[in-house]
């Protein structure tokens, strides 16, 4: 496990449940946090030890080392349009996103970020549910898209190293290829099971219990996340087609066997 990272000043845009989940660990490690969000989280932030700003102009005027984007996938474009980047106090700041797709935020951020600002695209492959007992061994995927201040980038990554995350460096492109098959497919199966309204029975097998758990875990995430995984990952549509084909293939095999003597 890494030694404690150098304390950073981190600003968070979007302070929903996932941002709150990350912030609690960052505060525990000794980092100084500020936040802004459409919803008024003043009281919650006060309890967490985070300074909250309703006004984004005032938020950007704080001299942070890092700005962490914790918006939803579907709202990212609108959020970026609302940020007056010329007001960012630190012209060499590191922007970090934590979205579940990677090509999409990378491309958008490269279009709008001033050249002086660094960019780290990340995906913590866990959340408040899977990471509630700690982050040890959980994967943290990242790409150093544009990094000039290696010290700040290293200190930010050490937040996750310190908690025992399995650090996986890969391109945004490769992430989306793999995530379309793993994350998107998992969410799709979970939502199919929900549409079938499967529930525990008095004679559940271990396998069926896992299916119920998958359904329940998937449905804790809103449909906007699932929609974002599909709309903003160019590889997701093919995986959906592959799933449909696989279901038809299995069905046909059963029907063929029914005709055997």
From TrEMBL:
UniProt KW Metal-binding keyword: no
Domain called Prephenate/arogenate dehydrogenase: residue spans: 8-261
UniProt keyword Chloroplast, yes or no: no
Record SUPFAM superfamilies: NAD(P)-binding Rossmann-fold domains
GO-annotated molecular function: arogenate dehydrogenase (NADP+) activity; NAD+ binding; prephenate dehydrogenase (NAD+) activity; prephenate dehydrogenase (NADP+) activity
Keywords associated with the record: Coiled coil, Oxidoreductase
Source organism superkingdom: Eukaryota
Entries under Gene3D superfamilies matching the protein: NAD(P)-binding Rossmann-like Domain
Residue ranges the record marks as coiled coil: 233-260
Biological process annotations from GO: tyrosine biosynthetic process
PANTHER family: AROGENATE DEHYDROGENASE 1, CHLOROPLASTIC-LIKE (PTHR43207:SF3), AROGENATE DEHYDROGENASE-RELATED (PTHR43207)
Protein name per its UniProtKB record: Prephenate/arogenate dehydrogenase domain-containing protein
